[in-house]
Amino acid sequence: MAADAAEEIRGTARGTAPVPLSVLDLVTVGAGRTATEALRTGVDIARLAENRGFHRYWVAEHHSMPGVASSSPAVILAHLAAHTERIRLGSGGVMLPNHAPLVIAEQFGTLEAMAPGRVDLGLGRAPGTDGATAAALRRTDRLNEGADDFPQQLAELIRFLDDDFPDGHPYGRIHAVPGPVQATSPGGVQSTHRPPVWLLGSSGFSARLAGTLGLPFAFAHHFSAQNTVPALDLYRDSFRPSAVLDAPYALIGVSALATDDEKEARRQVLAAALNMVRLRTGRPGLVPTPEEAEAYDFSPMEEEFVRSWNANVVHGTADEVRSGLDDLQKRTGADELMITANAHGGDVRLRSYELIADAYGLPAA
Fold first, then answer.
1. What share of the chain is helix, strand, coil (3-state, %, to 5)?
2. How far apart are CA 58 and CA 291, in angstroms?
3. CA dihedral 344, 347, 348, 352 (to 10 degrees)
4. Residue-wise burial string across 319-338, b where 16 or more C-beta atoms lie within 10 A, e elsewhere
């Protein structure tokens, strides 16, 4: 894997974009829409991203959120693999403490067999939900243990992916299949390649761990903007060259929405912000319509949250979004921008990626 890993991780900037551009899809479900429609929109976005030269398309694991239909990244990625040919597909991320490492190794080994050489495995240590749901997922209420054991779980997962537990290890005779063991079995012709592992984070823990292990790092700027620069600095300062990377590589998730009209962009991001207000106050639901958001009576505290939240959403016309993304990349030094478009309607989200591609002159297939 080592020879090819860096090439898979480091994308190529296209058009006039300062760095590679990618897509993070939360598979959002708007009021009056279905999960089926949201998943179909995901296919449309992945195809557009592939045709316009975006480097990768990731989905994120969330649970017990009516407005987010991405509880099963591996299932969604398998579906997308059947509808795309070139774009990298991955998790942004799978929440490792929610799963047995062997299960993740098997799932992503299967994805690698479906779409050879274009699968990423992004891992997070948060539950991707509230504490009660995390307890149901993990069948334990000792949630801190999962986060604290993350480095050990990560090491175990990588051992399963590489099929290289040392002699005498309790798992030495256990193999993740599909995986490298099939290449070393009699008559085996299976590739030993496995998906590159990324660490995801919204604070310093995963930044430091990714740097220490020489792994690529993805930071959730879209919901933890105040920590972006400190986390990236920590990652770069902690970085040690590895068989995977000889230099740091960090992408940031960015909430960005481009529309044909600046006023429409403001309407759409207000609806997305109302969705976050409800989520943060324990009332998760479907993404509201812009009309519902405009009619909503925000309290002073909610208004302040909306102002703070939308200050970190790059939105407006295509030119305004391009300028905002350029400024953010310069300020953070990010090696890649992964754009997530949050809006009520799938057509709005799809149009946003098209406008951003046009603004940067990304080539059409």
1. 45, 15, 40
2. 30
3. 140
4. ebbbebbbebbeebebbbbb
| Nearest-angstrom CA–CA distance, 335 and 329 | 8
Residue 133: alpha-carbon gap to chain centroid: 20
Cα–Cα distance between 179 and 161 in angstroms, integer?
7
Q: How far is the C-alpha of 216 from the C-alpha of 202, rounded, in Å?
A: 14
Indicate yes or no: pTM above 0.90.
Answer: yes
Strand (E) or helix (H) holding 23? strand 21-25
Three-state DSSP at 10 gives coil
Q: In this predicted model, what pLDDT tens digit does every residue of 77-99 receive, in sequence order?
A: 999 999 999 999 999 989 999 99
127 burial via Cβ count (<10 Å: 0-12, 13-18, 19+): buried
pLDDT tens sequence across 5-51: 788 899 999 999 999 999 999 999 999 999 999 999 999 999 999 99
Q: Is the dihedral of CA 118, 364, 75, 336 positive or negative?
A: positive
Closest CA to 60 of 73, 79, 77: 73
